[in-house]
């Protein structure tokens, strides 16, 4: 019962994150959507680990890997946003029509 | 009791996640996302994963503060005084989000979920430590090297150009045919100087 609830919450977070990543025009808001999807994945991992894996330590390891992915995504994402802004003064997806040079 | 708290925290995480795309200021959006992460961390603590839960809260508190600074740098509506709607392909996005939610929910509700909870009194943090520095050490070390590569990549990507000018100064993409013109728009004035004034605003 608790597991179902947690997994439904994770599904909702992933759905909202997907909506945000597809619909937002600003790069930073788009990354919030990606983070929200990873948040849902983390919630699902915690739920599965705690309630159906019997405390297998590899489950916690997977959660730590997801956190590392979050850090990588955010650092590289913001670096790319800064690089694109320096190059083209663009902070919206619509401003980038072509992948030049 | 624990179930009720978990239910409330799940609802709070989803609600704050939804607020991320509904508030009028990007700083508020990043704080809403932080609240969502904090709720997930608290669920982790309640579900007998104290290390993961607390680490999530600490990491996300710092990460969302950094994110808020970037928001101040890039947003067009700092105070949230005007309505902020900056969306494209809105219907497709709503559809994709709903499909993802209902598809995953159907998978959750229709599949028999195994029930094997963590035994009370299990020393989960010590188990995690032995796993990280034992059988899964290679994975853990790989994550560390990946983070190092991330730091290097982030510095390279976001640093200003070096003392010899832009890396693509005077560069020319290869032609479509031998010696022909490259595809796409041509850089104006020859060389690689032409792309500083394509303003997005």
UniProtKB/TrEMBL annotation, chain A:
Main subcellular location of this protein, as a coarse class: membrane
Alphabetized InterPro entries for the sequence: NADH_UbQ_OxRdtase_chain4L/K (IPR001133), NUOK/Mnh_C1-like (IPR039428)
Gene3D superfamilies given in the database record: 1.10.287.3510
Class of this enzyme: translocase
GO MF annotation, one: quinone binding
Entry's Gene Ontology cellular component terms: plasma membrane
Family stated for the protein in its record: Belongs to the complex I subunit 4L family.
Record's subunit section: NDH-1 is composed of 14 different subunits. Subunits NuoA, H, J, K, L, M, N constitute the membrane sector of the complex.
Function, as annotated: NDH-1 shuttles electrons from NADH, via FMN and iron-sulfur (Fe-S) centers, to quinones in the respiratory chain. The immediate electron acceptor for the enzyme in this species is believed to be ubiquinone. Couples the redox reaction to proton translocation (for every two electrons transferred, four hydrogen ions are translocated across the cytoplasmic membrane), and thus conserves the redox energy in a proton gradient.
Protein name, as recorded: NADH-quinone oxidoreductase subunit K
Automatic annotation (TrEMBL), chain B:
Composition-biased stretches (Gly residues): 177-192
Subcellular localization(s) per the UniProt record: Cell membrane
Entry keywords, A to Z: Cell membrane, Membrane, NAD, Quinone, Transmembrane, Transmembrane helix
Reaction(s) catalysed by this chain's protein: a quinone + NADH + 5 H(+)(in) = a quinol + NAD(+) + 4 H(+)(out)
Principal location class: membrane
Membrane-topology descriptor: Multi-pass membrane protein
Membrane-spanning intervals of the chain: 6-21, 33-52, 58-80, 92-113, 133-157
Region (Disordered): 163-201
GO function term, MF aspect, one: quinone binding
Top EC class, one word: translocase
E.C. number: 7.1.1.-
Protein purpose: NDH-1 shuttles electrons from NADH, via FMN and iron-sulfur (Fe-S) centers, to quinones in the respiratory chain. Couples the redox reaction to proton translocation (for every two electrons transferred, four hydrogen ions are translocated across the cytoplasmic membrane), and thus conserves the redox energy in a proton gradient.
Family assignment from sequence similarity: Belongs to the complex I subunit 6 family.
Protein name (record): NADH-quinone oxidoreductase subunit J
Organism for this UniProt entry: Palleronia pelagia
Lineage of origin: Bacteria, Pseudomonadati, Pseudomonadota, Alphaproteobacteria, Rhodobacterales
